[in-house]
Every structure is written in structure tokens, then in C-alpha cells.
Amino acid sequence: MHELSMADAIVRTVIDAAEKNDAVEVLEVTVEIGQMTLLNPEQIKFMLDVLSEDTILEGARFNIEVVPVEIECTCGYEGAVDTDELNHLAPVVSCPSCGGHEFHVRAGRECNVKNIKIEKRD
Ligand SMILES: [Zn+2]
Description:
This protein is of the alpha+beta class. The chain has one domain: hypothetical protein PF0899 fold (2-Layer Sandwich), CATH 3.30.2320. 25% of the residues lie in helices and 34% in strands. The chain has two helices and six strands. The strands form two sheets. Strands 2-1-6 form a three-stranded mixed beta sheet, covered by helices on one side. It has a three-stranded antiparallel beta sheet with strand order 4-3-5, with no helix packed on it. The protein starts with a helix and ends with a strand. Bound molecules: zinc ion. InterPro entries: Hydgase_Ni_incorp_HypA/HybF_CS, HypA/HybF. Belongs to the HypA/HybF family. Zn(2+) binds at residues 73, 75, 95, 98.
């Protein structure tokens, strides 16, 4: 399961960061998920809650920010693409201007921990 392994990686990243910063508690975690990852934000959120049980993350608030896909195409088009048809069977997008696939994906592939709010030891 795609979501589970991502959620697991996120939890480990946050625990690691919390320990390095002498945290006693993690209050809030903001995660950026690109639309192109095809990850389901609701499922990620649910799994983060489950995986954080009995860790320093227990009770933390998870915010999921979905990042829309943006491309820079060789035809000169720059910007958003239609992702309505994006799914696990057809995980590709095409340029809305020329219909091609020769482009650089500027945004939409991320799956990062963007921000962590912690309570520090005195
Ligand atoms: Zn194009």
C-alpha cells in the first residue's frame, strides 16, 4: 500500500526531527502532498493518526496540503494541468496546450514534511 509506506516515512522523519530538537511533544505537523503522487490525503491522514499512537507524535494535529500539478512544457506552456483524469491506471498528464508529454514537472510530485511544531524541554 502506497499510502501506508509514505505515512510510515513521514512519521519516521518527524520523530527523528523531534528527537534532534529535544521535543517533549509534537503539536502539529504539516505535510505537502503533490497531486501527481496519487496519494489519497484522507488515507494518509488516517494512517498518520494510527502510526503515531504510542510515539512522541501521539495527539499531534496533521495538516495535509495538496499541491496541484504545474508544468513547464517545451511548447512554451507553463502552469496548471487538468488532473481530473489522473488515476492509478493512467498516472500521466498531458500538456493542455499541445497535448504532449515533453515537459518538466515544476510542482505536484512532492511528499514532504513542510513544518513541525513541537513543545521543547525546558
Ligand atoms: Zn505543450
